[in-house]
Amino acid sequence: VAKRNGPNNVCLYDPSMNSVLDEKIRIERDLRSAIAANEITPHYQPLIRLETGEIIGFEALARWPRADGTVMQPASFIGVAEEAGLITDLFSNLLEKACRDAVEWPAGFLLSFNLSASQLTDRLLGLRIVQILGKTGFPASRLEIELTESVVVREMDAALAIMTDLRNAGVRIAIDDFGTGFSSLSQIAKIPFDKIKIDRSFISAFGDDDRQMKIIKLIVGLGHGLGVTTLAEGIENEGQLEILNRLGCEYGQGFLFAKAMPSEEIAEFLRTHEPASIATGTTAR
Ligand code: C2E
Ligand code: MG
Ligand code: MG
Ligand code: MG
Question: Are 128 and 169 in contact (CB under 8 A)?
Fold first, then answer.
């Protein structure tokens, strides 16, 4: 216990920090054992070809079911895992599970998977991924690794090294949350990637003013010019879908189609999903 009013008035400890610290230590401890027990699992949100409504794959999104019946969202524990040095274990567990689930999906379906900022310093990342692909039999060409634009810009050299590694292994790269990371055009020209995921904030701002739409049009044009595809995140209504279709955005995901679901629900979802009814508002032809 620190001295409150020592000679130099040093205060290293303040009782009010107690609960915050306790809470953090508790989550960290719970997280450690949850990872060890494989309790954190990926849920899957469908990725849709907007013109037809067909499903082209799923994005894996981490979910932590708690003892009290609630489910913890990634925003509440990915950062903790990074700080506690647990991200590599969590990543490996989740990716392996996701690949095992994804080998059961229809042929050609993509598995999209998010990378954390702190993983860019992991020199063995490429190897780890290749090893998991080998172990599970999921083809590299159907795995898409997502890197957030702001992270790529901040850690350009490390990101470039990893992207190059992964692409050489046949894995696809998507730039996530695009439009919020302020990458320069000269940086974009340098990085190897296959898909731009347009940040949800642009899509949810439709209607407020048409400048958001003009920016999307620009991003879609940029993608086409570079020979990559574009996907819009967070499509919640038919109006947004219609605009995105008009702007030529090829893919999308969002609550309009489905929220992330556990693996057990995928077969039923695929059975009942009617592509054309989503795209046109009419029943399948
Ligand atoms: P993200 O990669 O941008 O993933 C999309 C997020 O948007 C997901 O949130 C998804 O549930 C949400 N979303 C999708 N459609 C809609 C919509 O129509 N409306 C709204 N309001 N939200 C929508 P989620 O699952 O909470 O994940 C948040 C972030 O946490 C992800 O953002 C991703 O960066 C990160 N994350 C998730 N799983 C993992 C993981 O396994 N590893 C790492 N490193 N990060 C992960
Ligand atoms: Mg993502
Ligand atoms: Mg992400
Ligand atoms: Mg995103």
Answer: no
3-class DSSP assignment, residue 148: strand
Q: What is the pLDDT of residues 52-97, one digit of tens each?
A: 999 999 999 999 999 899 999 999 999 999 999 999 999 999 999 9
Residue minimizing CA distance to atom 33 of ligand 1: 114
Q: Would you give the DSSP letter of residue 181?
A: S
Residues, Cβ < 5 Å to ion ligand 2: 114, 146, 176
Q: Residue 239 and residue 220: Cα distance in Å, rounded?
A: 18
Pick the atom of ligand 1 nearest to 119's CA. Answer: 44
Distance CA 262, CA 159 (A): 30
Binding site membership of 254 for ligand 1 (Cβ less than 6 Å) = yes
Q: Which two tokens stand for residue 200?
A: 């949800």
pTM of the model: 0.91
Beta strands 172-178 and 251-252: pairing type? unpaired
Ligand 1 neighbour 82 (Cβ under 6 A): no
Look-up of token digits 């292994």: 169
111 alpha-carbon distance from chain centroid: 11
* DSSP result, 188-231: HHHS--SEEEE-HHHHHTTTT-THHHHHHHHHHHHHHHHT-EEE
